[in-house]
Amino acid sequence: MADELSKMLTAICEEEFKDTVNEVFTTMKDLCPVDKGNLRDSITVEHKDPATALIGVDEDALARKGRKRNYAPNVVKGTKPHRIPKIGEKTMKIPVETLKEPVRNPSLVKDGKLVVRHVNHPGNEPNDFIQKTLDKVSRKD
Question: Is the Cβ–Cβ distance between 72 and 33 less than 8 Å?
């Protein structure tokens, strides 16, 4: 009888754990700001053992998508205005429809993309989507 009860309780706990992991994972993806999907797509679940799971940004997944570094801290903490230079000999090609202001020099537009050597980024407000996830999930009854 005690073994049956123990098995039943273990099964209930495992199911609750699985549901909680899934809820944290989906909530974090929902609260993650969209940046071509790379950051959102890099949110993963790694099961360490039946009672342990790591949920967060997988730096290796970002690297596979061509990101040289994990930029999640810049999203969470925000950034000051900064200059983004071109990489090597390449110029940057920014789709015109994504720009918030009209192009001042139309000669820089080729095939619907603004071709530039650098960008003056205005910076980002902090968006701690990870903490927001924990707050949202922990408030549920």
Answer: no
